[in-house]
Amino acid sequence: MNRFFKFFLILTITSVFSFAPFQISNANEPILISENGVSLIKAPSTADGKINISGQTTNKKIKALIIKDNYQEWFDIDLINGKFNKDIWLTEGKGQYEVNIMVNLEDRKYTYGPRLYVENVTDVNRFLVPTKDIDSNDPEISDLAKRLTRLSKTDRDKARNIYNWITRNIKYDYTKYRNQLANDYSDVYGAINTFKTKKGVCYDFSTLFAAMSRSIGLETKVIRGNYVSGKRQEYHAWNEIYLKDEGKWIKLDSTFGYALNKDYFDNPDFDDDHVKIDEL
User: Fold this and answer.
1) What is the band of 14 on the pLDDT scale with cuts at 50, 70, 90?
2) Rounded to 5 degrees, what are φ and ψ at 148?
3) What percent of the chain has pLDDT over 90?
4) Whose CA is closest to 255, among 205, 188, 218?
5) What's the mean pLDDT in 99-119?
6) Taking the complete model, does pTM exceed 0.85, yes or no?
């Protein structure tokens, strides 16, 4: 009986040490939050200005919905073989953010997937980082901006070179414009799509300019407002960019620079037909 007990004790101790590495390995694996066909890797509870959203899904289309106080913003999430990995900058200051993965049901209808909360502890200058539709971290966009400005000696020269490239290489998309007039906003917007297709409406021109400028460290805003001419008033978008070496913001409109064949780069009469509403 004693011999059996000794054998059992040795076997038990051996088993514990044999399986210990496996248990440690499991402890280091990421924690998944799963709901509605989406498995989201749980992010750390605090963030230094941005959050990484990654995981996998069996759904064909998902988005991220970021909420803080009165701020709500939807972000597209690209899927590669069902997997996703996206950085989102937390531009609404310090505090708690709610991060939701939204699952597409049909058309523009979504339902909730996994949700998590994160405490942002770092303030971010939102006019210097990638934001919705302003993909300044896109390699092709940033590479082009660097090439265009490699010989520029001033911030004004850098901004002018980017402005000139856009007005000479991006065409106005009149089909998308007509869709907007019919309240159809199903087209793809933003810097990346504009860069790839070489066409867009005013918002696209402005987001591409902002993405290229931010990618080389120039503080840049997308301005939403109205174009005003006599009794005519129409929604429009343009840019403001900060010239650090001059210590001032200037205004420019690459859409009009292309469409009207007029220089809309820091022109003195800019405010005559531009009325600002808000900034992105």
Assistant:
1) very low
2) -65, -25
3) 86
4) 205
5) 96
6) yes
